[in-house]
């Protein structure tokens, strides 16, 4: 009767542990990174649950079995038992170490070193810049050395079923790029790049957080990661590139118009008028002043001769008008 109760208690404990494991097993795999991490967790749980049940069962049995012995005699030596639990512990630790190394050494899980160059098939390169309090994303295409083909703020777009390399940095302060649903997390330091590699496997919208306290607006430093089909992603990048190119052309046209206006308004002033005076007209045209401002200009007058013809003799007057008189 008592053994049956002990067995029932052990089964009840195992059932509780199984219920605790079920939510973990039901987590969706939205990326290769998440899939690797959850597989490791499940493998470790499959080992940890039997060990936990065994240890707790032995503890419960011991408490119940020797409950009436106030002064039990301690076991002085049991070499076989010591060898058994030492070997079993070594095997368990070896399994945990090998399984963990295989996952943690995977570039989809562990952040790459700044100088690392892991070759992958046709990855998309995206630079992430954190600032207080927001995110900017630069899609560089096939290499980080390329000029950004598309830029966005607040929303990061990724192609599904394609390798993506992320380069994370900061403009001003310490931040941390964190997307729990995709298993992504990397610190963002000014002047330094931390690299992540992932492969989204499910389309959808996922929440982006800053996981490093960065000031009064830290709680508002949120964003979104949108995973979309490859054709939609290519179309979006093309639209962004065309929009950026159109904006650059408009800016260049505006600069040329401004330079042309500066050249028009910059014509030399002080042109000469018909009377030889200098005026300050901005357009640089010749004007004819009605009055002369300089004295000593020549006027022409007609003097009578004996033959009745009019002759012209220059006289110096202070007027600018030329008159002809006939006597």
Provide a descriptive summary of the structure in words.
- Pfam families: COX2 (PF00116), COX2_TM (PF02790).
- Keywords: Copper, Electron transport, Membrane, Metal-binding, Respiratory chain, Translocase, Transmembrane, Transmembrane helix, Transport.
- Residues 18-111 form the Cytochrome oxidase subunit II transmembrane region profile domain.
- It is found in: Membrane.
- The chain crosses the membrane at residues 42-64, 85-104.
- The strands form 3 sheets. This protein has a 5-stranded mixed sheet. Strands 4-10-9-6-7 form a 5-stranded mixed sheet, with helices on one face.
- It is elongated.
- The longest helix has 36 residues, at 230-265.
- Among the domains are: 2-67 and 82-104, no CATH class; 124-242, Immunoglobulin-like.
- Helix 1 packs antiparallel against helix 2 (32-65).
- It is α+β, with helices and mostly antiparallel strands and 327 residues long.
- The chain contains 4 helices and 12 strands, in the order αααββββββββββαββ.
- 37% of the residues lie in helices and 23% in strands.
- 15% of the residues are buried.
- It has helices spanning 2-25, 32-65, 79-104, 230-265; strands at 124-131, 134-141, 150-153, 155-159, 164-170, 175-179, 184-188, 194-198, 204-210, 223-228, 297-304, 310-317.
- Strand 6 (175-179) and strand 7 (184-188) form a beta hairpin.
- The model is unreliable at 23-27 and 265-327 (pLDDT under 50).
Averaged pLDDT: 75
Rg calc: 45 Å
- Going across the major beta sheet, what is the strand order? 3-2-1-5-8
> How much of the sequence is in beta strands?
15-25%
- Helix/strand structural class: alpha+beta
Give the name of the CATH superfamily of one domain: Cupredoxins -  blue copper proteins
